[in-house]
Amino acid sequence: LKKGKVCEVDESNTPMCVCQDPSTCPPVEGDFEHVCGTDNKTYESSCHFFATKCTLEGTKKGHKLHLDYIGPCKLIEPCLDSELTEFPLRMRDWLKNVLVTLYERDEDNNLLTEKQKLRVKKIYENEKRLQAGDHSLDLLAHDFEKNYNMYIFPVHWQFGQLDQHPVDGYLTHTELAPLRAPLIPMEHCTTRFFEQCDADADKYIALEE
C-alpha cells in the first residue's frame, strides 16, 4: 500500500485504494511530529503530508512535492563551499561511529550480519591503534588508501541499508529520505551534498557516485 493511501470497499464490496483524508490522520502530540515539505510548508505529521501528496498524484505539483525534512519548516542557512568540503568527512565519520555502536550492542546478530561484524571488528581495532598516538599525514594517507573497512565500508553499508525499493544499486529520493530527512535540520549542507553526489543529474544516486 502506497504512503497516503488507505483501503476501502465500494458499494459492491470491492476493495480499492483511495487517498487518505488528512482529517483521519492520528492526532499529533507535539511539534516533533511536524514535517517540512519541499513546498516549504509545515505539515502536522508525515501522515498529513502523504495524504496531501496523494491527492496531487498525476499533477506536476504532486510530482515535485517530497518530504524534505523532519520538523517544522525553518530557515536553513546556505551551505558555504568550505563547509561542503568538510561535510562528507564528517558524515563518513558519523556512519563509522554508528557502525561501531551497533557492533558494541549487537550480541545476537540482529543488527549486523557475521560478515559485517568482521568488517566492523577491523574498524574497532584500527580506532584503538590510531588513538594510540600522533601519526604523520603520510601514514594516515597510506592508511586511507589501504583501509577499505575504516573509510569506505561504512558508506557502502549505509547505501545497502537504504537501497531497498527495489535493490538496484541506485538511491531514489524516497530511498534516501530516512537518512536525509532527520539530518537536514542539524546539518545544513545535507541537501547541497546529495545534489552534488548526483554527478550526472539523473535524480538517482549510484553507488559509484
UniProtKB/TrEMBL annotation:
Mind listing the GO molecular function terms for this protein?
A: calcium ion binding; collagen binding; extracellular matrix binding
Query: Which GO CC annotations does the UniProt entry carry?
Result: extracellular space
Q: Do you know which SMART domains this protein is assigned to?
A: KAZAL (SM00280)
Q: Which UniProt keywords apply?
A: Calcium, Disulfide bond, Extracellular matrix, Glycoprotein, Secreted, Signal
Is Glycoprotein one of the keywords? yes
What Pfam families would the database entry show? Answer: FOLN, Kazal_2, SPARC_Ca_bdg
Q: Does the keyword Thylakoid apply?
A: no
Q: Where in the cell is it found?
A: Secreted, Extracellular space, Extracellular matrix
Kazal-like domain boundaries: 18-75
**Which SUPFAM superfamilies does the entry mention?**
EF-hand, Kazal-type serine protease inhibitors
- Positions of transmembrane segments: none
Family the entry assigns: Belongs to the SPARC family.
> By what name is this protein known?
SPARC
- Taxonomic placement: Eukaryota, Metazoa, Chordata, Craniata, Vertebrata
